[in-house]
Amino acid sequence: MEPITYSTSRVVLRELAVDDVEAVHAVYGDPKATEHLSFEPRSREQVEGIVRRSMASAAEEPRTEYALAVTVPSGELIGFARLAMDPHQPQAATIGFALNPAYWGQGYGTGTVRALMGLAFDRLGLHRLWAARSPANKASHRTLVRAGMTEEGRIRGHVHVRGSWRDSITYSVLAEEWQPER
């Protein structure tokens, strides 16, 4: 299978490489960056395992997961994005992302979600994407809506993290609602 690269004016999504471990750890090891995610900060060794598994999943046929580096056009890795196919609905997938806090509030989150939509609808021919966020993560709400997703509702007791159950707020976008960058 051909490696994935998907570019917009703001970000580039590309396959992960072993050399990305430190930059991914700067995100997944950061308590601020993982505060609203479904897991606690990861060690460098855990991140190395995540990167290696992501690289291995890129070679699977059929491919069911796209775990990608988020870079700025200069090539600097600023985050991690994931698109996972729904095993029950082959034309649907879930997306998620995390960015280095140094890049928050600059439009890179919206750019990342838009790039994931472009990959899903333009390249993979999917029908539906969905995402979930922590109810406390108001910035993620703004990002997902600004990118073109619609809030759908709440999944109660959805994620067990930091010793307790947490709800998730869900969003979706359909292929016919997708508006490519002009």
From TrEMBL:
Residues 11-176 form the N-acetyltransferase domain. It holds the Pfam family Acetyltransf_3. The lineage of its organism: Bacteria, Bacillati, Actinomycetota, Actinomycetes, Kitasatosporales. Gene3D superfamilies: 3.40.630.30. This is GNAT family protein. PANTHER family: GNAT FAMILY, PUTATIVE (AFU_ORTHOLOGUE AFUA_3G00765)-RELATED-RELATED. It comes from the Bacteria. Transmembrane segments: none annotated.
